Fold each of these.
Amino acid sequence: MFEDRAGKVLVDLLSEWGVDHIYGMPGDSINQLMEELRKEKDKMKFIQVRHEEAGALAAASYAKLTGKLGVCLSIAGPGAIHLLNGLYDAKKDSAPVLVLAGQVPTDQIGTDAFQEINMQRMFEDVAVFNEQVVSEEQLPALVNQAVRTAYAEKGPAVLTIPDDIPAAKIKKHVQKNAAIYEEPEQVPSSTEMEKALELIGNAKKPIILAGTGTKGAKQELEQFSDKIAAPVIVSLPAKGVIDDDHPNCLGNLGMIGTKPAYEAMEDSDLVILIGTSFPYVEFLPEGVSYIQIDNDPLKIGKRYPVNVGIAGDSQKSLTRLNERITRTENRDFLENSQEKMAKWWKEMEEDEQQTSTPIKPQQIIAEVQKIAEDDAVLSVDVGNVTVWAARHFRMKTTQKFLTSSWLATMGCGLPGAIASKMAYSDRQAIALCGDGGFSMNMQDFLTAVKYNLPMVVVVFNNERIGMIKYEQEAKGNLDYKTNLESFNFAQFAENCGGKGYRVENFEDLGPSIRAAASFNKPVIVDVCIEDEPPIPGKLSYEQVTSYSKQTIKKLFEKGKLEVPPIRKGLKRM
């Protein structure tokens, strides 16, 4: 190590940690680090993005998909500021990310130099680790500690590096610490396990709410559900931990969820939360018993009046419970939920199987389903498209689902698809985006083209920010400033060097999506869709009256009558 350049040591350490690529954009205060990356390009691939936000979102997506460290690089000032949205996405979704942020040279810090800002103060809220390197000798220890902290606390670790540091040689003797992080093994408490077994044994209507913590326990979850005769509801980011077509699966809960999930939750007498900190407590019943299993003790009891809390790994906890539980004979609650879910799927299929023009978003999902491979990665942007994907796409446990779950930032779909191809080059990547969300980071379609990352990007083009329009109307207001200018995303794809299909008629939908899936390059399928409101799985009286209020208001103020989908609304009451 001694007499090595600090920048080379940095790249070597990242390689030891298993990092093989970095997202970023070159610039003033990282020129020396870029030179080191150039020299080590066979070891460390640099993915040049067109906007640092896309780089941070891609790094977060990579970490969510793989559990491995995502890394992004930026200059001081504007570049670092651009990272924040993606870093908050990583923080909210518990994704380990390392930020290498440039800074002005050490002798200029504090002089109000060009592009200098107080980086540590800016990153203070978002970062789980936030340090500035003050000497080349300090760099190795800080790199290792930053990575360890990102893994341990599952969030963004920031290392600010003045531009003169990477080129400097480490001359003094430095005790090199280890590029090692070992995940602690949490053994469930036998006392709490006994309490949980007693509650489960006494329950007549148990229900499971499974989160991302069950991704490593898919078989155990399915076995547990069958043994205790409990239907399974999944949080949105956990979509795919159980097959959507599994008879015990009721889909999601909440505004994007299903009516059977809502009704089963309301009717339950025991809620078992596994690997989730589900934030929408208004959809959880009162006056029932709760069991919570989580590997983070801080989350147990954080949102719910938990009767039993088990701090432990979901797979180990479920394995122990399955070993002690005998198969429940009374399966009335489960079978009733299954019957309701079968009816729900028939209702969904009515929309999916329509052959009308204008095209409905549900029809698009049905066509995407046909071309989705068994190990496909589905990157879904935020907005109405999230609802259509959550309700209509039948995920398999062999596929992967990706979105911005708790920050819910628009513009995450394309960076997620880029990260998908970097993580799994041999797997199909599909991005589902609204026109509003896609246009926020559409410039990085050029990144997909530049690095030849085959993917299918489907744009649901209704020329408006559809979810916000619905939210405004659901409050009894008229929609305001939600409309967007018409844009041909297929032509944009062609101009970028990719392939584009513009779909305006249903007859062209299936052939265009099938053709897109056959191309070995980035493709955009731009589908013009009908403005379809994402009616909640279970409508409340307040929602119905508010929506009726805006309908009458629109008639009197604009002389325009838009009749809501009454038949569908009545079914959801």
Amino acid sequence: MTRDTEVPARVRRALARASALGFPGVCEDPMGPLLATLAAAVPPDGRILELGTGTGVGTAWLAEGLGQRDDVRLETVELDESLATAVRADDWPPYVTVHTGDAEALLPTLGRFDLIFADAVAGKWTGLDLTIDALAPGGLLVVDDMDLARYTDPRHRAAVQRVERTLADDPRLVVARIPAGTGLIISTRRPDRRPSRSRYS
């Protein structure tokens, strides 16, 4: 569990917004530090997409991983205008953009990303195929809330199983299930073709 002294200031502000607005859907340990770690590994000129901004907790962790880089873009999509407005009012690096709208409608217009964190209904529980299409070759897709034991409603359990099947059955992806936090699935999109030479040669 992340100790309070280890939580970055921007994350603490996002958590305070969640408390003030009565918003319960913030990402839980160990998701935050994991997002920061994955963001730090995004390649030069990389792009990150978050689906479901909420009060900006996940966004803040992603920005923490990117630090002062000026070659990256972090885009986050929130359906609720009031939440998006509250998040925009915070102090963000210039590479952060907060979109307002339905993720399924926006996904085809946003291009491809090296890291996607799917934490909303649209783009995860529905429209997952659009999210996978938006993943760049070699990119990572992170979905949380995949622990089936958390759900009692048969519809919710069916949704979790549908997401698991969609990811596992997609030949473009290599998938790992991680029994931590709320249940994670991390998928890597395979390269479109085998490179003719090493990028490090």
Amino acid sequence: MRLASWGLIKELISSSDVVLEVVDVRDPINTRSTKLESLVLNSGKSLIIVLNKSDLVPREVAERWKEYFKSLGFKSVYISARDRLGTRVLRSEISKIVKRPLVIAVVGVPKVGKSTLINTLKGRHSASTSLLPGSPGYTVKSQLYRIGRGVYLIDTPGLIPPDSGDVESVIRSEHIDKIDNIISVAVELIKKVLKFNKTAFKDAYKIDEVDPYKILEALALKRGWVSRSDREPLLHEAAKAVIRDYFDGKISYYYTPDEVGSGTFKVG
């Protein structure tokens, strides 16, 4: 996993007219980047916050997040790039921007579905194109795809680090195999999930425990991940599985804007 430098992100913003910031609708607060948002708005470019993975939350939750960002002055659209739900609404929102040619960049923290969204917008029949006639030379090393009449998409790895000090910043900044103290990280993730869904791991794994370590131990035993020498459960393997399943949406978890700033939820 290679995060882009902020220098590259600034270059990407400069080369585009619209920036789509992709966030995970299950946890928009910890997967957004206020630094990115400030850079985009201060540059005079348009910003649309794309609340992705809406298939993993009730529709009313996605609607409430849309209203939340509207209250902050942001345009937002909720979609499921994987299931191609809501992408027409996103295209419609983009089409309201009258400037042509129009160049779009897609940016987000890792594991929010940015690449899936890019592929969805590109479609099966899109082809890369040369620089726009009369435009300044793009120095972002990427392909430019035409996705509509006068509308172009920059296909580039705009992966940025999360803002928060939440466990999200740890699991989204490194490949799973490179996360330090992965058992402790998974324990923090389990605690976070249980705060909002007490039955998440019973639903996902048929494990009726609430202690994070016992959940990891039970999962390791259930999957047969044990040490050959002493038959002790391999908690690090279970920790990797929990993080992967969290990213894949197999562990049900989300919160609402009402819980932001309350005693139930603390950013960072």
